[in-house]
Amino acid sequence: MGSSISIIIALIAVLLSFYGLLLGLLRIFPLWVAAPALLLSILYLVYRWNRRHQFRGF
């Protein structure tokens, strides 16, 4: 239950970061903030997704 909530939060973070990147490309928001935020949110999403499918033993 907790891992699915963190994946949903990570998806929302990716969407917000992508929106920030679009605003950065329009020079409304600083691009040097938006690009690393998108990268970190994607990395967090991949980390949480892979952690969910990890074998934890018997």
Provide keyphrases for this structure.
acyltransferase, 58 residues, elongated, mainly alpha
Describe the protein:
- One of its GO terms (molecular function) is acyltransferase activity.
- This is Apolipoprotein N-acyltransferase.
- The chain crosses the membrane at residues 5-22, 28-47.
- Keywords: Acyltransferase, Lipoprotein, Membrane, Transferase, Transmembrane, Transmembrane helix.
- This protein has helices spanning 2-25, 31-52.
- The chain is mainly α and 58 residues long.
- It has one domain.
- It starts with a helix and ends in a 6-residue tail after the last helix.
Question: Nutshell version of this structure?
Answer:
The chain is mainly alpha-helical and 58 residues long. The chain contains two helices and no strands. The chain has one domain.
